[in-house]
Amino acid sequence: MSEYRAAIFDLDGTVIDSMYVWEKVDRDFLTERNIPVTKEYTDAVKGMFFETAAQYTIEKYGLKESVDELVNIWLDMAHYEYENNVRAKPYVYEYLNRLKEQGIKIGMATSSNPYLLKSVMKKNGLDKYFDTICYTSEVGKNKEYPDIYLYTANKLGIRPEKCAVFEDIPEGISGAKRAGMYTVAVYDKASEENADILKKSADKFIMGFDEILEADIWKETE
Q1: What does the pLDDT look like over 93-120, one tens digit per residue?
Q2: Hey, what domains does the chain have and what are their CATH numbers?
C-alpha cells in the first residue's frame, strides 16, 4: 500500500481545459474598449486575485468602473464559457474513478471563483468526486505559498506528507513543495512555456492522466 492517502488537484488547466477562457476575457474586454492587448498586461494580471487585477486594470487604463463592477463583468464573461464550453481534460474521469476505488481522499485547491467553479463542476459531473473544495481566497495567499495546500490537507484529515498535489503552474508546484507534499506537474498548453521549469521542479511531470492510469504515483512512490 502506498504511503500517499490524498490527492489534491488544481482546477483550471489541471482538471479542466479552461485556461483559454481568461485569455479570451482579457482580449474581448480590452478590445471592446479599444485598448491594445499586450503580453505585458496579460502576464501582469496572471495569478492575481480578481480584486487585485481589477484595481491594476483600472489604474493602468483609467477606467471608470469600480473594482466590484469590473470583477462582476469579468465573471459574467467567463461564466458563459464555463457554463457552455469548458470540459474536463482527457482521462480525468478515469483517473478520479481509480483514486476512489483505491480509497484515496480527493481534494481541490483552487484560485477560481466559486461562481465559476460550481457551474463547471456540476455541468461536467465532477463535483461527486471531491471530498472538499478549498479556495485561495479562504487563506488570503496565492499558490506560491503553502497555505492553500495545508488548509486543504487539514480539511481532508490527511497529513501533508501523505498528500500528492496535481498542478499546471510553477507557482503551484512551489507552494505544494513548501507544504511538504509530493508534486505532479500536469502539462497544459497555456503554460507550455513553463514546461521545462515544471519538469525540473516537480517530482513527476505528465502530459496527461492517461500516463498514470496504469503505472501511477501511488505505486511508484512507495
Answers
A1: 999 999 999 999 999 999 988 999 998 9
A2: 6-16+87-220 (3.40.50.1000), 19-84 (1.10.150)
State the sign of the Cα–Cα–Cα–Cα dihedral 75, 81, 84, 87.
Answer: negative
- Which three cell numbers, joined as nine digits, stand for 105? 481522499
Q: Residue 12 and residue 188: Cα distance in Å, rounded?
A: 10
The C-alpha atoms of residue 89 and residue 7 are separated, in whole angstroms, by 17
* Residue 150: strand, helix, or coil: helix
Helices (H), the chain: 19-32, 39-45, 50-61, 67-84, 92-101, 114-123, 136-139, 147-156, 170-178, 195-201, 217-220
Which residue reads 506528507 in cell numbers? Answer: 161
Strands 6-9 and 163-167: parallel
* Alpha carbon distance 185, 208 (integer Å): 10
H or E segment to which residue 206 belongs: strand 204-206
What are the pLDDT digits (tens) for 163-183?
A: 999 999 999 999 999 999 999
This prediction has a pTM of 0.88
